[in-house]
Design a protein that fits this description.
The complex is a heterodimer. In chain A, 71% of the residues lie in helices and 7% in strands. Chain A is an alpha/beta fold. Chain A is rod-shaped. Classes of the chains: A alpha/beta, B mainly alpha.
Chain lengths: 398, 314
Amino acid sequence: MKETENNQIDLLLRSLAKREGARSISPSSETSIEAAHLDADELNAFAEQALPPATRARYMTHLVDCTRCRRVVGDLSAAAGLPVPPVTHAETKASVWQKLGLLLSPQVLRYAVPALAILAVISVGVLTLRQQSRTEFVAKNQETPASVAVTQTDLPDSSTTPAPAAGISMSPRKVPDATAARTDAPAKHGETSAAATGAGETSADAISPLSKSDVGREAPKPVTTDGQLAKQPPFAPEPAAPGAAARPQNAAPSESAKNEAIAKQKEQTEAGVAAARDANNERATQDKDVSDTRSRKAATLGRGGAGIMRRDAPRQEAEEKRGDEDSETRAVEGRRFRRRGNAWIDTAYDDSRPTLTVVRGSEQYRALVADEPAIRSIAEKLSGEVVVVWKGRAYRIR
Amino acid sequence: MKERNEQIETLLAAAAKRLIARAGESRSLDALALVPRIKAAVEKYLLKDDENASSKAIDEFCDGLQADDLCLIVACERGDETAWTDLVARFTTTVRSAARSASSNEDAAEDLAQSIWAELYGLRVRSDGKPSSKLAYYSGRGSLAGWLRAVVAQLAVDQHRKQSRLVQTEEDSDLDRLANDLDDADQIVSVGTVNPENALSEKFAGAEMHKALERSFKKLSDEDRLLVKLYYFDGLRLREAGAVLGVHEATASRRLTRIHSDLRQHVECILMSEKGWTKSETDRSFAEIAVHLDGDLEGLVALRDAKTQEHSVT
């Protein structure tokens, strides 16, 4: 379009030049400016670009109107053959402005604006997607602390046992085991409540909100009470283990020891109930704050720790687990057994499973090993109490 | 004023000494012999347009003078035969070449070259009894070779005009008539058109357009007008036109494109604001006239050449 317009002006100028040329055929047309013709020195100085700017401008005005002088200057310039700079400074400036003008011209903007708009939409879309993926990621990480929090808040139901302490000492990477601890805890609680009186059971239920707040504050207490637990690494099954581990330890030697443990738990429960009554109103409000704070803390832990270790955690966990298993578990006859105190528990064993207790050397034991020689092998290789799951049934061999 | 003159004199004396020191061959000239020449050049090219030119500007101007050429010319002017011999030996080829370019044949070129040397030597005598030599007009601002070419070109033009005046009385009226014929170029445009109404309309539009273009052209800067004149009116190529302006061919091309845009805008503005044309009418007229001019410019030139030949035959 622009080129066409320029071509039209070009043709008009050529037409104008022809008309002027025809007029200038007549020599009389230049008589008016003859007196003012530039002399040879001036013409040469102009052609050789040897004049000061002001003088050059004055001569230029004359040359525009004087065909004679202009033609001489044209010939002199061609003969001189002076080298000219490719682009003058002024022209550079002008061209820069021209380029800017062209850049902002409607022709360019017509395509540039939609292109920029599309680019902006794509950018926003990409940013949004990235934001979403990040949000999902964060949410995933928060599951860990959330589960910890749930564990912590659920555990108080069995806070009469040392289990809560283990629950608090859990690190985020022990999450799966923490869940196991949570599942272990009710069972243990059930045992405890079964051993306790009906009043104790109700009191345990009554202090469940109370113990939520006490978990944090009194957490070290059970740990220090149970030194074995405090020394152990915060391994997931271990939190639940003290109760379970203490049972065979204490129960095995004597029944009185078991009774002592139950009495101890009962005392703790009663003390908790008393404390709950004293600070009932205050704690009712604090409970929420503490649990929130704990949840936030746990969430922070989870977010920070899991964020950093989100890739390495499973591997490290597996490695640590393997290391622990090497020291705590043994494989016999294709079964894996984990040591809990003086007992070897089949990893497939579940507390809820009905268990048949068999004493070594008894008639029942001999009948069992006669039918299942592998159990004999297991019982011989593992000393102490052995709990094995065999063909869907659980046997406790003492 | 007096202090200013004294200051300038001091500057010129120092400049003359520097000029002689710069010259490869000073031809036994002293600084005092050069001062009047340098002063004339400074007044002509510097102080005439800038009376209050700084000392630095004066020094720079003087240091830009052609030392060797100026010393040679001044020595010739003072009657130094060796200098004259050197001048002729060095510039005979230049003068002959320039004369050939300005003449139609070899004999005319030889006559022109001899005339130049006579003018330079000063065969004619001025009213004060001293020889009238063109050497007195060389300022040293440009090269001596260029100055000699300019002298040859001017002399050729003068001789041509003298010869032209002899036949002017009988040809002038014919040429003026030819010019008037070509002024009515729009008539040529309308020859081929079928509809007389359209032809009249186009002729009118073309005349308006040409007038607007002439007015727009006058609004351009001197440098832009000079470029247009050199390119369109004198038929120079962009490289040659750029050389006159001291710019590169590419620069001249860009400048010409900008001039086209400026002229287009000016013409449109005149036609729309003064003649009441709409934008579409202006665009349509541009397009129509351009189409006709594109086809008829060649015919226009052919017609002019034919009439010129006819005149020369008669």
